[in-house]
Structures
1.
Amino acid sequence: MRLAEDEFAAVVEQVRDRIWRNGSPADPAAVAAAARAEGVVLGAADLVRLLDGVRAATAGAGRLQPLLEAEGTTDVLVNGGGGVWVDDGSGLRPAALVLSGEAEVRALAVRLAAGAGRRLDEASPFVDARLPDGTRMHAVLPPLAPDGTHLSLRVPAVRRFGLPDLLAAGAVPAAWEPVLRAVVERRLSFLVSGGTGSGKTTLLQALLGLAAPGERLVLVEDSGELRPDHPHVVRLEARHGNVEGRGGVGLDALVRQALRMRPDRLVVGECRGVEVRDLLAALNTGHAGAGTVHANTASDVPTRLHALAATAGLAPSAVDAQLLAGVDVVLHVARSRAGRGVVEIAVVAPEGGAARVVPALVRSPDGRLGTGPGLDRLRRRLGTPVPSGVPR
């Protein structure tokens, strides 16, 4: 008789715990012996299920593993109580799977954190880490999360999306392709702005793949997500401190190290703190560069950078001066019901001594393309002749 899902989950936990106590590998013989020792008699089909379940529970993400491995999955989220949500590229939706409750969610989160070399308990009730397979993990425990342990897993992209892929998917309008290529070929410094999950990293990765093969790209990231299709990539990753807060190496320190590594392009995967100061300084000393930043709209980017740079002691006027001198273009991406894609190409321009991001090319929610007051400035930045994709 085939076991029901809740019965099967209980058997997996029993067998897993016995294997751990015995120090045995999760091979077929050990799993079968542990099942017999627990008084469980299984048929051939359930024994195969049990083997897969125990392996997932000891090395993978337990019952979440099939969701993480499903094609197109970008995020798997577990809320307090065991509710599971999945994003497979079309937005979040509830999964058919529901974990058994707080005990299972917490045990899974603690085990995953330990596998990443991190601690998760009452003394350290939240963790942000990268698992051995590249999955990005975040967890937070009660009482910080009153409804129970919350677990967030972001799956690293297996496929490297290039600009042709984004064009085919409609994420980039065909008329804007020459503009994006010209931004890279002219070695303009640019920022990609947008909300969480809007496709910032995907667009940045695709554009970095257009860089000339002879260029050296130095990537600085908190958690390695960028995988540009380029022959010369150097990757630096931040290191979190231990439970005493020691031993951490932040993005700001890595940006300074990257400048000593002869970068042709310096890339910060996500600007979200004091590293903004060092990136802007680098872009004002002859280095071409790029990065992403969270912002609701392209015009919000200066305000967002002001807030981030304030943590490093920079005044808004200093940020504006460096932004005007060091950043040429802002590419804004957004998520809609039709998917994720570029909705604005803008330029950085002065206004009364302050920096302002001015739209040059815009795409409305219904897909219509238009122009903005920054178009002439964009043309001057791109040089002549103007790419045929720029509306006249």
2.
Amino acid sequence: MAGLEKTTPQPTDLTVHQQSRVLEIGFADGARFRIPFELMRVYSPSAEVQGHGPGQETLQHGKREVGILALESVGHYAVRPQFSDGHESGIFSWAYLYQLGAEQARLWSDYEARLMAAGVDRDAPMPGKAASSCGHSH
């Protein structure tokens, strides 16, 4: 996964809003985004969600109420959220968070189209695994 590109503005502040379930992040270029936890969870950069190559993505759903229990710094370039459904393997670089914020409308639209194509309701629980399982041992 890409780390910090030279063109990526540095974050100036980062706030986890538990009630509204959004991550608010401000960048040095003046951009400020409110990224819903659900969007972060659905587009987690982890292999569990993205797969190990094109076409191997796992469509996430049932994540509207997901929370962030903790946010761990990863060097000076990223954060690793611990989501309330047990998912904690996604490392979100500043560049990736900037992209999620800047392209939010398109990403939501793409997500809804993928759900519709799969015939899955956005709030349907994920099949097969218990809510606290994230595919690896702790």
